[in-house]
Write a structure and sequence with these properties.
Blueprint: E1 8-10, E2 12-15, E3 18-26, H1 43-71, H2 74-87, H3 94-103, H4 107-122, H5 128-148, E4 163-167, E5 183-188, H6 196-204, E6 208-210, H7 215-218, E7 224-228, E8 233-236, H8 240-260, E9 277-282, H9 288-293, E10 299-303, H10 317-331, E11 335-339, H11 367-373, H12 375-388, E12 393-398, H13 404-423, E13 433-438, H14 441-445, H15 447-453, E14 456-459, H16 461-469, H17 487-502, E15 506-509, H18 520-525, E16 530-533, H19 538-546, H20 550-562, H21 566-575
Parallel strand pairs: 3-4, 4-5, 5-6, 9-10, 9-16, 10-11, 11-12, 12-13, 13-14, 14-15, 15-16
Antiparallel strand pairs: 1-8, 2-6, 3-7, 7-8
The structure holds phosphoenolpyruvate and magnesium ion.
The site of magnesium ion has 5 residues, from α16.
Length: about 575
């Protein structure tokens, strides 16, 4: 019998859907660099050749930026700005020219030496921010080298037929030259459910499996693959029956999506009439069109930190106010829930000179803690949000609240900012709901205290699960332990919902758990009032909500809470 075991790879389901096709292996391109000694008389020519390569790289990056803006939106396009800035760095410009006249060798060789030196200096750093910046410099150097070596086509451009892209990692810049209409799936060595690649694939609506560890060394270009972005599996050389099954499932899913989209204008309401607020998670103003297309009735999580990333200076109050107003206005009359800055200090290091390295940033100065420590940054954001409040129906939520006093401190600053604006005669909306995000176990356990002071609670399961179970949410080695059905998580969700309701407040969920349709009935039964999910998941969720009654969902929740084994709980939910 044929050994089918070796053909299955299990990773992490990162973007839903099924992709079938031939592998296109995106290999790290090896450029062959040779050292060439130059005569003095050839130096001027070599400098001119180098400058020409820099100019060509600049032009390429500018084109990339336009393309990224078109395809991926502003957030991802900012990476091109970072690259353009790197291109002006003396390491890649003046220093190379200086070395050229000193050493009298070719430009390619000197760039290579500069990269090796950078690696030697920074390789041992554990800090993600610096490691990412080094990768960016290497990426830009690579582009200059390609121009010097006269390599015109990138590997991505060689995709001419429908393919499954297999790569070690995938950055927004890697997708620029990718004909995304030909890409039927991604299979990636690294990453977790909330990694950059996962979010990217979701926004491109391409099925993806990540965290496959060594898939790049197990397949080659031309091999036949099935990507199951729902289950997180990849099958190499599927047998005819498996292929037939998957093709059928894919057709069913396409038909289902077409049917589901017809529900767009119907309310998300249970059979017995409980109205659920079904909203969307987004990162930029450009995402709003998708939100409306899929029939969301609001934004339940706007991750404002994206406006602060990959840039050289902090966004001003005006820039922020303009951005927030644009989103709130487009969403009218539906609410837009802005989450204040959720960022670790490391990401803002260029602007904060006193910032000290943290050995464990996930347990460090993040989100609300960071904002309380740097109130000027916080106040600027709050002023901008309040200014946007007359343009739409806005809500504000603080992330990573770990207890009552932190939440009250945040509210106090907000109140001060409000009074300041009133004194400046800036028009404000008279009623803005202020919520606490519940994603730290200490906040979940004291949710009753928070519910008394907040207008609403929103459960961030991505972090709540990682902190409760002590499982890093983006580490593929412990991914199997990241279990939303762990009884501790279910009990916490129940506690949070009960706490909110006992104070007459509504409670939502904006973590990925809300997007998983296996959990919809259970979450309804635990009494969740609002679900906030990736826009494309809205129609499916709506159809489940519209076919479920509260008594049925409560029965399911009760039964699941009585089970001690999360595998059994999942089986039960799959059967419901
Ligand atoms: C969460 O933690 O569940 C959440 C929605 O926030 P983020 O994924 O941005 O940390
Ligand atoms: Mg979170």
């Amino acid at each position: 019998m044929e050994n089918t075991e070796s053909k299955f790879f299990h990773g992490i389901a990162a973007s839903p859907g099924i992709g079938v096709g031939k592998v296109f292996l995106l290999e790290k391109e090896e450029l062959i660099i040779v050292k060439k000694s130059l005569h003095k008389k050839d130096l001027v020519k070599e400098v001119a050749r180098f400058r020409k390569a820099l100019a060509a790289t600049r032009k390429e990056l500018q084109q990339d930026k336009l393309e990224m803006l078109k395809v991926l939106g502003k957030t991802h396009a900012r990476l091109a700005d970072v690259y353009l800035l790197i291109l002006e760095d003396p390491i890649l410009t003046k220093d190379i020219e200086k070395q050229m006249s000193k050493e009298q060798v070719n430009a390619e060789f000197l760039i290579q030496i500069a990269i090796e030196k950078l690696h030697r200096t920074f390789d041992n750093l554990t800090d993600d921010y610096f490691r990412e910046r080094i990768n960016d410099i290497v990426e830009v150097s690579h582009k200059i080298l390609r121009h010097l070596l006269g390599k015109e086509k990138t590997q991505q451009e060689e995709i001419t037929e429908e393919s499954i892209v297999v790569a070690h990692n995938l950055l927004p810049s890697d997708t620029i030259n990718l004909k995304t209409n030909l890409v039927k799936g991604f299979a990636i060595d690294v990453g977790g459910k909330t990694s950059h690649t996962a979010l990217l694939a979701q926004s491109l609506e391409i099925p993806a499996v990540v965290g496959l560890k060594d898939i790049t060394s197990r397949v080659k270009t031309g091999d036949f693959l099935i990507i199951d972005g729902n289950q997180g599996t990849v099958i190499l050389d599927p047998d005819p029956q498996a292929l037939k099954n998957y093709k059928r499932e894919k057709e069913i899913q396409i038909r289902e999506t077409q049917d589901l989209i017809k529900l767009r204008d119907l309310p998300a309401q249970t059979v017995d009439g409980k109205r659920i607020e079904l909203s969307a998670n987004i990162e930029t103003a450009e995402d709003v069109k998708n939100v409306l297309y899929y029939g969301a009735e609001g934004i339940g999580l706007f991750r404002t930190e994206y406006l602060f990333m990959n840039r050289e200076s902090l966004p001003s109050e005006e820039e922020q106010a303009e951005h927030y107003s644009r989103v709130a206005k487009k969403m009218m009359p539906y609410p837009t829930l802005f989450r204040t800055l959720d960022i670790g200090g490391d990401k803002l290091k260029p602007f904060i000179h006193s910032y000290a390295e943290e050995s464990n940033p996930f347990l460090g100065l993040r989100a609300l803690r960071f904002c309380l420590k740097y109130p000027d940054i916080f106040r600027t954001q709050l002023r901008a949000l309040l200014k946007a409040s007359t343009e739409g129906n806005i809500r504000i939520m603080f992330p990573m609240v770990s207890g009552l006093s932190e939440f009250l401190q945040g509210k106090e600053i907000l109140e001060n900012v409000k009074n300041e604006l009133i004194r400046e005669r800036v028009p404000l909306s008279p009623r803005i709901e202020i919520g606490a995000m519940i994603e730290v176990p200490s906040a979940a356990i004291t949710a009753d205290l928070l519910a008394k002071e907040a207008d609403f609670l929103s459960i961030g399961t991505n972090d709540l699960i990682q902190y409760t179970l002590a499982v890093d949410r983006i580490n593929e080695n412990v991914a199997s332990m990241y279990d939303p059905l762990h009884l501790s998580i279910l009990r916490l969700i129940k506690m949070i919902c009960d706490a909110a309701h006992s104070h007459g407040k509504w409670v939502g969920m904006c973590g990925e758990m809300a997007s998983d349709t296996h959990f919809t009935k259970l979450l309804l039964g635990l009494d969740l009032d609002e679900f906030s999910v990736v826009p494309a998941f809205i129609p499916k969720l709506k159809s489940i909500i519209r076919s479920t009654s509260l008594p049925e969902s409560r029965r399911i929740a009760e039964e699941i809470l009585s089970l001690k084994d999360s595998n059994k709980a999942l089986e039960r939910l799959k059967a419901s």
